[in-house]
Amino acid sequence: MNLRRTILQSIQSRALLLLLSTAIILINTRTLGPEGQGQIAWVQLGLLLVTGASGFIAGGAVVYLKTKIPLRTTLLPGHLWLLISSVGATTIGVQLGFLPAQRILEIAGLGWLQGVVIFHGQLLLASQNVLAFNRLQVIQNSCVALGLVLAYFFWGWQHVDAFLFVLALSLIFTAVYSLFSIRKLPESKNPPPFKEAIRLLWKHGSAAQSGGLLQMLTNRTNFSLLASSAGNGAAATGIYSVAFYALEAIWFVARGLAPVVHARTANNPDQKRRIQETRRFIGLALLGTLPLAILASCVPDPWYAHIVGFGGIQPVIIRLLPAAFAGAFASIIAHHLSGIGQHKWNAYSSALGLFVLIVCAWIWIPIHGINGAAFAASFAAVMQTIGLVIGWSYCEKSHWSKLLPKWREMGSEFLSSEKVK
């Protein structure tokens, strides 16, 4: 497939996901208010924790390992691990007070289903079927948005439980659909022994997913800290979560490009060429982030209050702007490193970001509340990106200055004539 077409399809899918996610957030905030949105954000944090643990075997490492073991061989160990991690991660999260104990069953069940969808999506990505990978996410969010409209406005069931019910049905439908999407995975005549498949998946998956799990905690720990802190609670979490979802909307171009970077880097043995491509992808990601960041920060807070039903969002978004640009930059570099099997650098940089976040949030949230959480997130994102640049420079044995994007090189030939190998 033409590279230009792959990029445009990926970004279009991300744009559609952005619209659907925005619709879901608006439906929830207008119906359930900041406290209800805060409860939902806390439960979704649990789902992210479960899927983060699931990825140690049933995650992104399958993209890198596709040249070492047949993709179909990963199905059995992957699905066994999904069951184990859904129960284990939820239990640990509740015991540590990180997750709401009253939602333990919902988090475990929904986390398992979400893990299945993500695992199958990674298998599609390993097959370089980026379109099908994006389609899964669009289907899931479409079902959630439609289901919420029916539950809240036609059936009059306006409660957090209604959201969880709709999410469960959507995940079940998407998981079943994903089974049909991966049915064409090639059979292997000489598959490796089960223990060998587990060993390879754990070896590479633990390194890859340590970074992913730490990244998730860096992005979402503020939800739990605000919800459990005196003087803030679920309402503060609801306001911060909407602002953070706006930040993720700003990232939609970078996140649309990231899977393409991952797939192409994993299939490109030419070091000079893959550095050149990734450098250009960084430039595109930053160019795509700039107008969205300006737009999000310039919308007056009363407008946000009118749209979502409560205010206090714009000041948080402004304080998250450093994270907007740092995150866009980091997303591309992290997927490049994953593509060359250097997952440990993603883990190192994410650990640095999480450490910085916890220390800064512990100091700033009691003083500045929601704004303190945003300050901590931005500082952590900048430090993490610096760590990724150092790791990228080390792994590709190139000075960091040679890795930065060169704007004059972003010509039409990059997006028009190249073929995905």
Description:
With 421 residues, the chain is mainly α. 79% of the residues lie in helices and 0% in strands. The protein contains 16 helices and no strands. It has helices spanning 3-54, 61-65, 75-95, 104-126, 130-154, 160-181, 194-228, 233-250, 252-266, 271-298, 301-308, 314-319, 321-339, 343-368, 370-395, 412-416. Helix 1 crosses helix 9 (252-266).
Task: Give structural attributes.
421 residues, mainly alpha, 16 helices, 79% helix, globular, disordered C terminus
* Gap between N and C termini: 8 Å
Gyration radius from CA atoms, angstroms: 21 Å
Uncertain regions spanning at least 5 consecutive residues = 410-421
SSE order: HHHHHHHHHHHHHHHH
Q: What is the number of helices?
A: 16
Shape: globular
How can the largest sheet be summarized?
none
Q: Return the average pLDDT rounded to an integer.
A: 84
Q: What is the beta-strand fraction?
A: under 5%
Overall helicity: over 70%
Structural class: mainly alpha
